[in-house]
Every structure is written in C-alpha cells, then in structure tokens.
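Lecture 7 notes: from sequence to structure.
We start with the chain below.
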Amino acid sequence: MTPQEKREVLRAIKSQIEAGQHGAAWTDLRRIAAPGDEFALQDRYSRTLARIPAKAIGLTPIRIALLATSTVDHLASALRFWLATAGFALELYQSEYGTMQQMVLDPSSELYHFKPDLVWLFTGGRDVALDGDPDAQDPAAAVTAAVARTRSLWMLLQERLPAQIVQNNADLDPVRTFGNFEGAVPWSRTNLLRAYNVELARATGPGVTLFDLDYLSGEYGRRAWYDARWWYVSKHAVTLEALGLVAHAFAQVVAGIMGRAKKCVVLDLDNTLWGGVIGDDGYLRLAGQAFDAVASIVAAIED
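Predicted structure tokens for the same chain:
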C-alpha cells in the first residue's frame, strides 16, 4: 500500500471514529501501519490513536519513564502508537533533554515520584566516553570503565524502584576517522564501541534488558540513521524517518518483558516445510533444507 493510499484510509478511519466505530477504526489503523513508514505517517498514526478511547480497544495501562541524552519527543509520539499495537496504553514520564543522569542520581527527582513500571535509558554511541590510546597497554580498560559507569545507574535505579530497566547499547558512528583502519586496531573508537556492546551485554542481569540499538541502525542503514542536520539543530540522535522502527522494536521488547510475547507454531504444511515424501523423491529438495533451518530456530527458542 502506497503512502497516498494509507492517507486515504486514514481519512476513512477518521470518519469511523467520529461515528463511534472505535473497534473498526483501530483494526483498520493497525492493518495499514508499518514500522518502516515515513515519519509523517507515523505522526498521523499517533494522532489518530489519540482520538480512540483506550478502554474501547482494551488497552492495559503501563507507566514508562523515558530518560534520554537526546531529543526524543517525536520518538515518544511513535512509541505511544506502537505500544498500543502491543496492547498497552502508555503513561509516560519524559525527562528534559540532557538530564538523564540528574534524574537517576537525585532521589527526590520526579522520576521516583512517577514510579514507573519500566525505565528506558535511551543513550547512544556518542554518549559512551572512551579514550582510545594507541600506546595503552590495555585499551579494554576504557571499555571496563564505561560499562561500570552505566551499571552504576542501573544499581541506583534498582535500589530505589521496582521497575524493569531497558538500556540501549551503542550505535556505531557511520563516519570513521581512520577509514578501514578503524577495524584493524583494538584502540579505535569503532572497535572500542564494539567491545563496549559485548561487555555491556555481559553486565546485564535480572531486572535489566538490553535494547539493541546498534542492530537497528544497521538494519535501517548507518549512513541514513544519523542525520547531522537534525543533531546540530535539535539534538535528535536518530533520523526522524527511523523512529517508527525504533518504537516498534521497543514495543516488542516491552511485550516480552510483560509476558505478552507470542509463541511460534510450525506446521507440516503437507510435506512443504517438512522434508517428507516429495523431498525423498528428489523434488523440491529445498523443502528438507527449509525444514532444517526452521527446526534449528525452534530448537534455539526452546533452549
């Protein structure tokens, strides 16, 4: 469906809402929305959702504190919509720009009065203080120190709140000062951030979930992910066009944390997936390979 076709459906959905047909409107809205849709559509999805009563579509309230080192107002808007598709009505506390650490450190801050169910520490690669030194005996020491600083925030939050913590890992900068050499030496910022992500994953424990921002940046495309204009003008760490992808991925993480993840049921499909008679007879030999691939995924999930 093209963006123009989606806009036409949105106009029809508006008429449904005005007629009190909230369930039908919500069904149609979910049908046309996709995480990769352009920002203008993501914004319209959120504004359309705001016209539908949460009780009319059976949403469960969830309190989330979004603490960021960048501007996330537009992300919060998209997040409200994509959490609704996962069954949640968002009650949001959003810190002011650049006050994440202050909110966590101050025991009397509004964060703790809000008493969230979940705290999202929205950081990125540019927030990780790493001093790579080609003469250093152990470049990993900078990584260890950076992870320790992040963990100290988790510990404070866990002491003061019964909330689940979601922590971004570091998205890599598409601009590499030393070009290919960045990947060839252990002290480059690129490799230090890669090491940071690995150590950060090792540092997580009960009550802390890692949000793989670096994977999303790669899926979207690193060169398009970071828009220097938006960063220097308004401190948006991620291009607005990728916010739907980020919000949708986070909503799926929340659904898993809250026990709403859906399990996968794999069916035989009459010897199409399963390497059965047809595969044995030499036809569609790929069927057997496809089954092996699916079976390995199922086994990994069961483990």
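Points to note: The mean pLDDT is 88. The radius of gyration is 22 Å.
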